[in-house]
C-alpha cells in the first residue's frame, strides 16, 4: 500500500503559497534587514508574511518551512514602489536546505499590486515626512542657506526640486496626493523536483489568468488543485504532459543511466561568464575555495550556482551552499569554511560589500562577467584544449564567445529570452505591460490619481520598457502563442524555422513509420505531439546535455583508473558502522601511487584535489557500495568509465593526449526519443464544487487567498490506479509503439533474440577457444611492441625522429604517462588466464607467491642479514579480499608488514673480516655490490610507507626495476619457475606461451638502451638510505684526520644538513627523504686535533634502493696552512654508468685525481701548456653547451651544475683563461691563487668608487656609470665581499668557482672584463701575453660570454648555501 509520504514524493509539486503584505497588520519594518533610517521609506524593507500555503497539512517527508520560504521568495522583504517605477513581474528559483542535507526546490513569481489600505498609505506618508524633516535639519546644519519649510510636506528640499521626475531622488519620493502606492507580492511553488520550466510556465500563466479576469468555469483553485494532486512526477525515463493554465507542457525525467535532471539554461550561463571564466570558476569550486557570486538579479545567482554545481558531476559540493543569501544573513560571509554564496546588490553598491579572507576567495561578478581567483590557484588539466573544445561546441550552437558578443546577446532588446520577464528593471516589449493598463481590465476599475509626469499620465514613458497600450495590445499578447522560456537564446537562422524533431531524427522518423503501419497512432496524433512539444525547450535541453557531456568526459578521462587506488576494507570482518566510526583515521585512497601515474604538469591540481572533501566523498561512496549503499552519481560515473575501458580494451586506460567527447550524439538521441513520445497525460483542470468556489473572496487587482477546504481535499484512492500496474501497462504500450509489432509478433521476436543470445555448442569447442585466446595473445604482444617502441622514441627525443625511428607526433609525450601505460600493460598480461583472481594486482600476487617459494628454498642455507626477506608473520599489506593462492594462504597474504629501512640495511658484517684482512695493508675502503634479485627489490618497495595498495606496490616495483635496467631480467627469473606458472595460470594464458613470452621479454630488454629515473623522480617523499664512501690519500700523512669531519649532499629534490662522519672511518650509511639525482657534495672538518690535515681523493655516494652511484672527485687538502687553506670543499658529481662494476669503480678511485686528471681544480692546472686557441676552443664549447641546455626541452636537459662546475665546464674554462699568463709562483712566500687577484681588484675598485663618490659630492655632476664601468665595479665589489663574508671555510679555488657561478647568474661576466683590463692590478699580476692584457682577446671574451645574457641561470641551493 502506498503511504502518504510516498504519494508526496510522486507529486510534481507539493505546495503552492502566497507571500505578501498581511491585510490585518500594519507597516512593520523588517528588523532582520538592518536599520535603514537614512534611506527613503520607499527603499526600506518591510516584513512579509506567508498569507497562505496549500495544502495546510505538512507531511513528514516534505514539511513546509514558512520562515525559509518567506525569506527566499522576498530576500529583501516587502518593497514599496509608485507608478514612477518599473513594475514588471520577476521570476526566480530558490533552494531550501534542511538539517539533514536534503533540499526543497522553490520557484517564486514576484509582482506588484496596488495598496488600497488608507492605513498603509498614511503610514508611508508619515515615514516620508519624518525622513524629509531629518534631511532638512541635517541640510540646515551643514549649510548656511534658508531652512526648508517642514510643515508643508509637499514642499521638498532642494535636492528633490528637480526638473525631471525621473531623477533617483524624485523616484524615491512618495506623495500621497499624487502617487499610487504598490507593494510586492509573490506566488510560489515548492517541491522536491527541479522542474524550472514547468514552474515558471505555470506561475506566469496563472498570473496572466488572474490579470485577465476571463469568465471561465475553471477557477484559480481548479488550476492549483490540478497541479498539486493530479499531475504526477514522471518516473525515470518517462514523459508527462500537463496543463499549465491552458498551455500544454511536457516534463521528462532521465533514466538512472543518464545525467540527472537539470533545467537551468547553460546557454545563458556561458553568456554571463564566458568559457575562460567558467573554467576558472570550475577550478575554484573543485579546490573548495570560498566562492561569492554577486549580481543584481536573483535568477542569475541561482543560474550560476546551480550550473557550476552541476558541471562538477559526478562530484558533489559538500560545504555551505546558499545561492541566494538574504540580507539578514550577510554575517554568514565570516564563516571560516568553504562556501558558495550569492549576494544580490546593484552595481553601485558593490564597493561597500565587506568580504573577509580575500586570500582564499573567488569573487564572481555575474553582471560584468568577471571572475577574481586566488593567486595560488593551480591550472586545470589540459586547460587550453578543454577551452578550445568548449569554444567549438558553443560556436556550433551559435552561442557568442567574445565578451562584447556575449553582452550584446544577453542585453539585446529584441531577444525574448526566458529570463526577460523577471530581470530587474528591464523587460522585452512583447511581454511587458503596465499594471495600470492591466487594472483597466478589471470590472471595477479604480480611477487612478493624476501623476505629475510630463511624459505620460502613468508616470512611465514609452521608452522605459512599458507599453501604455489599450485592451487590444493586451489581447494581442494573451491570444498569441505563448513564448517559450528559451526563446531568444535559440539561433534565428533559417534552419530553426519550422523545427520538427521527427524530421531531425532519422531514428524517430523510422519509428514513426513503423508505428503508423502497425496502427498504433495515426498522423493526427503525430501532429498533435509535435504541436504540444516545445522545440525550443528541446534545443535547450540538447545544448545542456552536450555541455554536461563534455565536462563529464573530462572527469572520466582524468579519473578513469581511480577505483584501482581505493583501499577497500575487509567487508567480511568489518561492518559499515565500524568503518564509519574510524573513517577519519583510516586512509582510503593510495594517493602516492595515483599521483605517480599522472603527468607532471597536472600534479599541482590533482595533488590538491584528492585532498578535498569533494573527492573524498566520492571515494567514501565507492567503499559504502560494498554494503549496498549505492550512489546514483557514482553509478553513472563508473558506467562511463566502463564504456571508456571497453573502447580502449584496457583495464587501466592511459590517454596522454587530449580526447574530445564522443557521447553527445548518443545521449541526444535518447533525449529526442523520450520527448517525442508522451507516456502519460495528466487530466485537465475541472470545475470545483460551486460551494467551494463561492468561498473565494475576489478583490479586483489583488491576488486572492485560495479556498483552503478545496485545496486540502485529496482525490479518492479508488480513482487512482496502481502505480505498478500503470508502469507495467505504459511499458508495454511504449514498447509496442517503438516496435510497431503486435503481441504475438513481439513474443516471437523476443524468443528469436533469446535463442541468438544462447551460445552454440560449436562455439565452446577447444579449437574455437584456442583461436580466440590466440588472437588475444597476439594483440598483447603487438601492444607490448608498440609501447616499448614509443617509450624509446620518447626518451630519445628529436634524435629518434632524425634517425627515422619514429614520427614527430610521438615526441614530447609525457614520459610518466607512457611508463604508467607500461604498468597497465603488464597488469593485463599477468591477469590473462589466471586460475583464480588473488587481488587487484595480478603481478604483485605473482611476486608474493614467488617470494614465498624463494624463502622456502633458501631455508636450509645460513641466514644472511642482507638477503633476508620480510617476516611473513609480521609483514602486512593492505587488507583486501583475495582468495588463497596455490602456494600460500590468504592469511599470510594479508598479514605482511613493512619493515623500517634501517632493518633492511643493517651494517653488513658478512665478509667484513675478510675485507679488513685484505685491505689492512692498503687501508683502501671498498664498495660491496648490491644484490640483484627480485625479492631484494620487493623488500625495498615494501618499506615505502606512502604506498597502501597492491597496485601501488606493483607499480613501484616495475618503476624501480626499469630504473635499475633489470626489468627484463627480473621477469625472466619470475617466469622461469614453470611449476608456479602452472599452478597460477591456465594453459592458454599469455605467460605460458613460450615463443610469445620470449618476444615479450626481448621487447622489455630493449628499454635498457636508455636511462630512466621513473622511480627517483616519482616517489619524492620516500625515505632512501645513502651510502657514502670516502677515499683519502694513500699517503700516510693525509690518510686520516684527527678533526671532526662531515658531509652534506645536494640533489634535484633537496639537500641534507651536515652529517658527521664517524671518527677513523671512511664509510657511513644514513637515511633521508629522497634527494633525487645528486649534483653536489660538501665535505669539510672543524680543523681540531693534533693532525687535522686531510687529503681526499674521491667520494662515492650510492643510493641503496636504486643502486645509482655518483663519483665526486676532489684531489685537494682540507686544513689550515696547506694548499689554499680550505676547511670545506664543494664537489660536483657525475653519475657512474651502470656497466661499470664496483671493483672497477673502486680501482679508479684509488688513483689520485692530481695524477690522473690534471684538469681538476687546483694550482697545478696552470702547469698545463695550453695555447690561446685551445683555451678559446674550450671556452666556446662550454658556452655552446650551456646555450644548448636552455634550448632543449626541459625533459631532455641534463644537470646545469655539471655544465657550470664539471670537467671542461664554464668554471674550468674561465680558470684556464684567467690562469694563462698569471704570475702565481713566488720565490719568497706562498704561491698566489686567482682569488688573490680578485681580492686585490676589489680593493682597487673600492678606492675608485670612493674617489668617484667624493668627486660627485664636490662637483654635483654624476658620471655615467655605464660608460666607465662603475656599476660593474660596484657589483664585483659587493659580490666578492659577500663570498668572503659567508664562505670563510671555503678555499680560494672554491671561492673562485662560486664567484663565476654567481657572476654568470647576474650577467656580470662580460661587463667586468673591460674594468679588469684597465686595472693596474692586472698589469702587475699578469704577463703581456695574457688574455686580460690583450684588447682583442678581451673583446673576443666579451662576445662569447654575452651569449649567456639571454638566459635565466638558476643555481642549486646546495651550491649557493650561505650566499642567497
UniProtKB/TrEMBL annotation:
InterPro entries per record: cDENN_dom, dDENN_dom, DEN5A/B, DENN_C, PLAT/LH2_dom, PLAT/LH2_dom_sf, PLAT_RAB6IP1, Run_dom
Q: Name one Pfam family in it.
A: uDENN
Q: Where is the composition biased (Basic residues)?
A: 716-729
User: Disordered: where is this region?
Assistant: 137-162, 452-490, 713-746, 877-926
Task: Give start and end of each RUN domain.
Answer: 813-1020, 1201-1360
| Keyword Repeat (UniProt) | yes
Q: Does the record's keyword annotation contain Phosphoprotein?
A: no
Q: Where is the UDENN domain?
A: 32-632
Tell me the superkingdom of the source: Eukaryota
In its UniProt record, a GO molecular function of this protein is: small GTPase binding
Biased amino acid composition, Basic and acidic residues? 730-746, 900-917
Q: Which UniProt keywords apply?
A: Membrane, Repeat
- Report biased composition (Polar residues) as residue ranges: 137-150, 882-897
Family affiliation: Belongs to the RAB6IP1 family.
Protein name in the entry: DENN domain-containing protein 5B
Q: Which organism is it from?
A: Scylla paramamosain
Amino acid at each position: 500500500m502506498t503511504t502518504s509520504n510516498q504519494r508526496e514524493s510522486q507529486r510534481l509539486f507539493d505546495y503552492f503559497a502566497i507571500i505578501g503584505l498581511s491585510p490585518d497588520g500594519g507597516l512593520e519594518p523588517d528588523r532582520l534587514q538592518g536599520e535603514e533610517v537614512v534611506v527613503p521609506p520607499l527603499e526600506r524593507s518591510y516584513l512579509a508574511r506567508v498569507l497562505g500555503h496549500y495544502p495546510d497539512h505538512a507531511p513528514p517527508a516534505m514539511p513546509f518551512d514558512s520562515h525559509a520560504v518567506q525569506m527566499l521568495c522576498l530576500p529583501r522583504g516587502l518593497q514599496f514602489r509608485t507608478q514612477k517605477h518599473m513594475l514588471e513581474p520577476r521570476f526566480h528559483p530558490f533552494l531550501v536546505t534542511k538539517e539533514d542535507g536534503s533540499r526543497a526546490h522553490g520557484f517564486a513569481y514576484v509582482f506588484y499590486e496596488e495598496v488600497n489600505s488608507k492605513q498603509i498609505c498614511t503610514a508611508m506618508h508619515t515615514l516620508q515626512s519624518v525622513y524629509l524633516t531629518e534631511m532638512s535639519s541635517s541640510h540646515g546644519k551643514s549649510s548656511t542657506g534658508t531652512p526648508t519649510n517642514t510643515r508643508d510636506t509637499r514642499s521638498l528640499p532642494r535636492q528633490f526640486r528637480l526638473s525631471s521626475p525621473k531623477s533617483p531622488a524624485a523616484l524615491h519620493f512618495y506623495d500621497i496626493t499624487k502617487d499610487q502606492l504598490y507593494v510586492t507580492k509573490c506566488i510560489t511553488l515548492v517541491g522536491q523536483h527541479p522542474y524550472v520550466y514547468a514552474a515558471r510556465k505555470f506561475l506566469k500563466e496563472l498570473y496572466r489568468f488572474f490579470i485577465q479576469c476571463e469568465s471561465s468555469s475553471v477557477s484559480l483553485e481548479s488550476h492549483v488543485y490540478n497541479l498539486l494532486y493530479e499531475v504526477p512526477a514522471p518516473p525515470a525515463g518517462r514523459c508527462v504532459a500537463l496543463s499549465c493554465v491552458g498551455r500544454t507542457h511536457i516534463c521528462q525525467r532521465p533514466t538512472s543511466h543518464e545525467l540527472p535532471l537539470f533545467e537551468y539554461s547553460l546557454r545563458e550561463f556561458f553568456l554571463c561568464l564566458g568559457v575562460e571564466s567558467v573554467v576558472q570558476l570550475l577550478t575554484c569550486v573543485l579546490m573548495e575555495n570560498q566562492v561569492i557570486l554577486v549580481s543584481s538579479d536573483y535568477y542569475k545567482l541561482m543560474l550560476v550556482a546551480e550550473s557550476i554545481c552541476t558541471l562538477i558531476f559526478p562530484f558533489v559540493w559538500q560545504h555551505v551552499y546558499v545561492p541566494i543569501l538574504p540580507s539578514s544573513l550577510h554575517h554568514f560571509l565570516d564563516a571560516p569554511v568553504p562556501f558558495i554564496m550569492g549576494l544580490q546588490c546593484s552595481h553601485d553598491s558593490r564597493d561597500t560589500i565587506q568580504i573577509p579572507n580575500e586570500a582564499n576567495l573567488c569573487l564572481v561578478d555575474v553582471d560584468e562577467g568577471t571572475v577574481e581567483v586566488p593567486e595560488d590557484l593551480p591550472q586545470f588539466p589540459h586547460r587550453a584544449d578543454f577551452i578550445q573544445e568548449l569554444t567549438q561546441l558553443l560556436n556550433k550552437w551559435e552561442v557568442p564567445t567574445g565578451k562584447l558578443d556575449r553582452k550584446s546577446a544577453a542585453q539585446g532588446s529584441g531577444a525574448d529570452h526566458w529570463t526577460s520577464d523577471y530581470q530587474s528593471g528591464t523587460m522585452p516589449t512583447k511581454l511587458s505591460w503596465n499594471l495600470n493598463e492591466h487594472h483597466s481590465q478589471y470590472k471595477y476599475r479604480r480611477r487612478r490619481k493624476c501623476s505629475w509626469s510630463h511624459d505620460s499620465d502613468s508616470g512611465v514613458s514609452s521608452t522605459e520598457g512599458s507599453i501604455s497600450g489599450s485592451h487590444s495590445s493586451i489581447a494581442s499578447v494573451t491570444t498569441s502563442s505563448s513564448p517559450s522560456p528559451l526563446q531568444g537564446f535559440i539561433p534565428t537562422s533559417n534552419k530553426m524555422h519550422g523545427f520538427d524533431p521527427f524530421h531531425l531524427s532519422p531514428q524517430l522518423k523510422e519509428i514513426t513509420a513503423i508505428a503508423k503501419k502497425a496502427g498504433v497512432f495515426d498522423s493526427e496524433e503525430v501532429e498533435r505531439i509535435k504541436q504540444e512539444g516545445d522545440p525550443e525547450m528541446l534545443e535547450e535541453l540538447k545544448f545542456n546535455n552536450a555541455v554536461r557531456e563534455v565536462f563529464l568526459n573530462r572527469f572520466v578521462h582524468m579519473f578513469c583508473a581511480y577505483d584501482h587506488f581505493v583501499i577497500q576494507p575487509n567487508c567480511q570482518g568489518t561492518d559499515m558502522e565500524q568503518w564509519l566510526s574510524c573513517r577519519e583515521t583510516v586512509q582510503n585512497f593510495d594517493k602516492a601511487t595515483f599521483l605517480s601515474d599522472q603527468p607532471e604538469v597536472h600534479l599541482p591540481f590533482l595533488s590538491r584535489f584528492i585532498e578535498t572533501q569533494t573527492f573524498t566523498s566520492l571515494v567514501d561512496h565507492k567503499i559504502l557500495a560494498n554494503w549496498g549503499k549505492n550512489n546514483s552519481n557514482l553509478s553513472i560515473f563508473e558506467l562511463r568509465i566502463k564504456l571508456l575501458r571497453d573502447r580502449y580494451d584496457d583495464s587501466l586506460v592511459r590517454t596522454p593526449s587530449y580526447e574530445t567527447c564522443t557521447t553527445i550524439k548518443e545521449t541526444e538521441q535518447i533525449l529526442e526519443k523520450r520527448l517525442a513520445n508522451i507516456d502519460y497525460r495528466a487530466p485537465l483542470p475541472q470545475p470545483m464544487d460551486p460551494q467551494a468556489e463561492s468561498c473565494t473572496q475576489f478583490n479586483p487587482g489583488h491576488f486572492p487567498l485560495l479556498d483552503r477546504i478545496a485545496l486540502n481535499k485529496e482525490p479518492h484512492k479508488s480513482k487512482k490506479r496502481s502505480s505498478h500496474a500503470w508502469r507495467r501497462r505504459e511499458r508495454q504500450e511504449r514498447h509496442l509503439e517503438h516496435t510497431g509489432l503486435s503481441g504475438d509478433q513481439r513474443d516471437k521476436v523476443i524468443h528469436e533474440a533469446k535463442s541468438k543470445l544462447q551460445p552454440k555448442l560449436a562455439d565452446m569447442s577447444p579449437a574455437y577457444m584456442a583461436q580466440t585466446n590466440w588472437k588475444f595473445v597476439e594483440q598483447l604482444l603487438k601492444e607490448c611492441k608498440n609501447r616499448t617502441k614509443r617509450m624509446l622514441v620518447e626518451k630519445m627525443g628529436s634524435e629518434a625522429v632524425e634517425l627515422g625511428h619514429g614520427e614527430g607526433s610521438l615526441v614530447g609525450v609525457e614520459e610518466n604517462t607512457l611508463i604508467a601505460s607500461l604498468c597497465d600493460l603488464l597488469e593485463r598480461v599477468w591477469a590473462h588466464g589466471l586460475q583464480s583472481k588473488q587481488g587487484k594486482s595480478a603481478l604483485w600476487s605473482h611476486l608474493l607467491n614467488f617470494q614465498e617459494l624463494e624463502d622456502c628454498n633458501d631455508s636450509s642455507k645460513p641466514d644472511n642479514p642482507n638477503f633476508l626477506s620480510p617476516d611473513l608473520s609480521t609483514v602486512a599489506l593492505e587488507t583486501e579480499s583475495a582468495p588463497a593462492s596455490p602456494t600460500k594462504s590468504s592469511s599470510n597474504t594479508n598479514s605482511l608488514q613493512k619493515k623500517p629501512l634501517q632493518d633492511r640495511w643493517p651494517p653488513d658484517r658478512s665478509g667484513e673480516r675478510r675485507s679488513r684482512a685484505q685491505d689492512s695493508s692498503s687501508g683502501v675502503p671498498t664498495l660491496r655490490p648490491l644484490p640483484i634479485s627480485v625479492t631484494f627489490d620487493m623488500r625495498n618497495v615494501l618499506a615505502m610507507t606512502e604506498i597502501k595498495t597492491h597496485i601501488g606496490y606493483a607499480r613501484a616495483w616495475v618503476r624501480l626495476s626499469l630504473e635499475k635496467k633489470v626489468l627484463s631480467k627480473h621477469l625472466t627469473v619470475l617466469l622461469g619457475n614453470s611449476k608456479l606458472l602452472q599452478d597460477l595460470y591456465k594453459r592458454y594464458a599469455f605467460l605460458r606461451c613460450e615463443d610469445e613470452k620470449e618476444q615479450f621479454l626481448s621487447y622489455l630488454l630493449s628499454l635498457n638502451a636508455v636511462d630512466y629515473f621513473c622511480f627517483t623522480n616519482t616517489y619524492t617523499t620516500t625515505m632512501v638510505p645513502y651510502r657514502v664512501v670516502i677515499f683519502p690519500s694513500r699517503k700516510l700523512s693525509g690518510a686520516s684526520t684527527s678533526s671532526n669531519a662531515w658531509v652534506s649532499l645536494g640533489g634535484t629534490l633537496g639537500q641534507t644538513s651536515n652529517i658527521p662522519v664517524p671518527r677513523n672511518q671512511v664509510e657511513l650509511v644514513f637515511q633521508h627523504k629522497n634527494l633525487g639525482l645528486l649534483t653536489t657534495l660538501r665535505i669539510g672538518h672543524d680543523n681540531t686535533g693534533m693532525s687535522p690535515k686531510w687529503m681526499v681523493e674521491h667520494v662515492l655516494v650510492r643510493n641503496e634502493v636504486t643502486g645509482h652511484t655518483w663519483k665526486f672527485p676532489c684531489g685537494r687538502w682540507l686544513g689550515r696552512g696547506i694548499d689554499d687553506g680550505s676547511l670545506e670543499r664543494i664537489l660536483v658529481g657525475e653519475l657512474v654508468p651502470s656497466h661499470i662494476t664496483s671493483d672497477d669503480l673502486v680501482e679508479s678511485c684509488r688513483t689520485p685525481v692530481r695524477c690522473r686528471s690534471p684538469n681538476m681544480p687546483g694550482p697545478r692546472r696552470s702547469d698545463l701548456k695550453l695555447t690561446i686557441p685551445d683555451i678559446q676552443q674550450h671556452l666556446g664549447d662550454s658556452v655552446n653547451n650551456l646555450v644548448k641546455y636552455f634550448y632543449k626541452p626541459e625533459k631532455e636537459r641534463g644537470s646545469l651544475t655539471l655544465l657550470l662546475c664539471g670537467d671542461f665546464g664554464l668554471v674550468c674554462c674561465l680558470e684556464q683563461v684567467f690562469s694563462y699568463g698569471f704570475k702565481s709562483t713566488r720565490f719568497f712566500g706562498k704561491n698566489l691563487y686567482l682569488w688573490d687577484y680578485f681580492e686585490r681588484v676589489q680593493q682597487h675598485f673600492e678606492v675608485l668608487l670612493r674617489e668617484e663618490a667624493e668627486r660627485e659630492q664636490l662637483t654635483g655632476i654624476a658620471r655615467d656609470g655605464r660608460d666607465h664601468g662603475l656599476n660593474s665595479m660596484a657589483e664585483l665589489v659587493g659580490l666578492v665581499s659577500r663570498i668572503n663574508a659567508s664562505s670563510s671555510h671555503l678555499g680560494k679555488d672554491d671561492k673562485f668557482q662560486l664567484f663565476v657561478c654567481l657572476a654568470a647568474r647576474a650577467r656580470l661576466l662580460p661587463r667586468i672584463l673591460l674594468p679588469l683590463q684597465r686595472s693596474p692590478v692586472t698589469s702587475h699580476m699578469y704577463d703581456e701575453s695574457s688574455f686580460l692584457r690583450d684588447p682583442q682577446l678581451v673583446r673576443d671574451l666579451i662576445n662569447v660570454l654575452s651569449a649567456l645574457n639571454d638566459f635565466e641561470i638558476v643555481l642549486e641551493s646546495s651550491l649557493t648555501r650561505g650566499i642567497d
